[in-house]
Amino acid sequence: MNALAARRRHPAAIALLLMLALVVTGGLYAAFAPKPAAAAAVTADQVEQGKALFQSNCASCHGLNAEGNETEVGDLKAFGPSLVGSGAAAVHFQMETGRMPLASAGVQAPRVNKVKFEETEIEAIAAYVASLGPGPARPDEEWLDWEGQGDAGRGGTIYRSNCAMCHSSAAVGGALTRGKYAPTLAGVEEVHIYEAMLTGPQNMPVFNDMNLTPEDKRDVIAYVKQMQETGNPGGLGLGGYGPASEGMFAWIFGLGIMIGAAVWLGQKGA
C-alpha cells in the first residue's frame, strides 16, 4: 500500500493524468461535436473545380491564391481583399446575390438579380475558399426554418436593437454616409439574410454566433419575413421610411389642400 501511495504522489503521475484527460476530452469532442452539413458534402474534386473557377474569374482582383490584390480600373485603384479565412458563407452570399464578380468599382457593390454563375459553380468556389482557412460555414437548414421554429416576437426585439438603425424599422433600407446605404430586405432569401448577419458584408457589422446565436438569427429572419407578409394594414405605407416621408406627405398634400381651400374661400367671399 505504501508503494502504491508513493507512486500516486510522484510528480510524473499528475502530468500523466492531465495528458490522459486531454486525450479523452479531445476524442469525445471529435466524436460528438456537430459538423455543418455543407462542410460534410465537400469533396476534393469540388475543391479542385472551385480553384480552377476562382483562378479564371476571381484571381484578377483577389490574387491567384486569394491573398488579395490591388488593381487599376481606369483612373481608380481597386483593392480585392484577401479571402483566406472568409469562409464559404461569405462567398455564397456575395456570388448568389450577384454582388460578385463586381461589375464596376464603386462605394458599394449592389445586389444584381442576374447571377453570373451556376449554383454548383458557386458551391465549388465556396468550397475552395473554405479550404484556404477556417471561416464561417453555410448555415444548416435548421437555422433557416423560420416558419416552423422561428419566434418573430423575439426576433423583433433583436432586430430593433441591432438592425433597425441602418435597415429602418420596416426593413426597407436606409442611407449611410459617403454614398453608402443599407439595402432593403424585401424579397431577400432567408439564407442570404443569415449569411449577411454571419459574415458582415461591406458596411455591415459581423454578428457571429457569440454576438447573435443561430436561434437569434433565425428569429430575426422570422420577424422580417412575417412583417413583409403582413404588409401595411393601416393603409398607404409611404415606403416605410418613417417620419421623413410622412412629414413630406403632410407638407405637400396637407398644406397644399389647406392653401387651396383658403384661396377658394377667399374667392367665394369676394
Q: In a nutshell, what does this entry contain?
A:
The chain is mostly helical.
Describe the protein.
A two-stranded antiparallel ribbon has the order 1-2. Strands 3-4 form a two-stranded antiparallel sheet. Helix 11 (190-199) packs across helix 12 (214-230). Strand 3 (174-175) and strand 4 form a beta hairpin. The protein is extended. The protein is mainly alpha-helical and 270 residues long. The protein folds into two domains: 36-137, Cytochrome Bc1 Complex, Chain D, domain 2 (Orthogonal Bundle); 139-231, Cytochrome Bc1 Complex, Chain D, domain 2, CATH 1.10.760. It has 13 helices and four strands. The protein is 54% helix and 5% strand. The longest helix has 27 residues, at 243-269. 25% of the residues are buried.
SSE blueprint:
Blueprint: H1 2-8, H2 11-32, H3 37-40, H4 44-57, H5 59-62, E1 69-73, E2 76-80, H6 87-96, H7 119-131, H8 146-149, H9 152-162, H10 164-167, E3 174-175, E4 181-182, H11 190-199, H12 214-230, H13 243-269
Antiparallel strand pairs: 1-2, 3-4
> Could you give a short account of the major beta sheet?
2 strands, antiparallel
Q: How many beta strands in the DSSP annotation?
A: 4
The rough form would be described as extended
Output the radius of gyration.
27 Å
Mean pLDDT: 83
CATH topology name of the largest domain: Cytochrome Bc1 Complex, Chain D, domain 2
Assigned CATH architecture of the largest domain: Orthogonal Bundle
CATH class division of the largest domain: Mainly Alpha
Q: Assign the structural class, choosing from mainly alpha, mainly beta, alpha/beta, alpha+beta, or little secondary structure.
A: mainly alpha
